[in-house]
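Hello Y.,

Per our agreement to keep a running log of every chain we model this quarter, I'm adding this entry. I've kept the format consistent with earlier entries: sequence first, then predicted structure.
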Amino acid sequence: MPLVTLFLSLTGDRFAPPPGARTLLHAPGEVRDPFLDDGKAPAGVAQLYFDSLAALEAAAGEVGDAVDAEAMTVHRFAVPEPWPRVPARYCTYLVAYEGPADDEASWLAYYLEHHPPLMAKLPGIRELEIYTPLEWRCPPRLRLVRHLQRNKVAFDSTAALAAALDSPVRREMRADFARFPPHRGRVTHYAMTTEPLRP
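Predicted structure for the entry above:
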């Protein structure tokens, strides 16, 4: 079983992660995207990582301070200069494709083959992950959501992210976006400040 992750939209300023999971807390950041403005970022997003779907589902049953929940498969891609040690705070860009696509399998196959090699060339990128949907048992008190795809790129600072978003590589990415197989729904892009609660 590949690595899986659980995204949770938070209802308050505090979040107590279930035991054992690597946990990241994403809070709204302040970076202007020269191409896009998707409005106000989510108030808070927790991201938990698990080695198995069973562990994820068990932990989801213990979550208290969340509303929406989404489990996804993690696809990690190499970047030229990853962190030797993840810092206590850094900047991420969270992207979500609401979907649907006319042919989901073909859309994801195109994305995974063509887009990550471009993303990995963003100047200053430290981490690159793509997330794809999976079937899971969501606890009834959480609201199950499902995206066509999510992804995350990470940088040292807001300045580093801002430079990447206005780089020639980003323009290549926008050109590739125009070649994606047919899909519908919103695509959101939010700059977030990320803090590992449990590295």
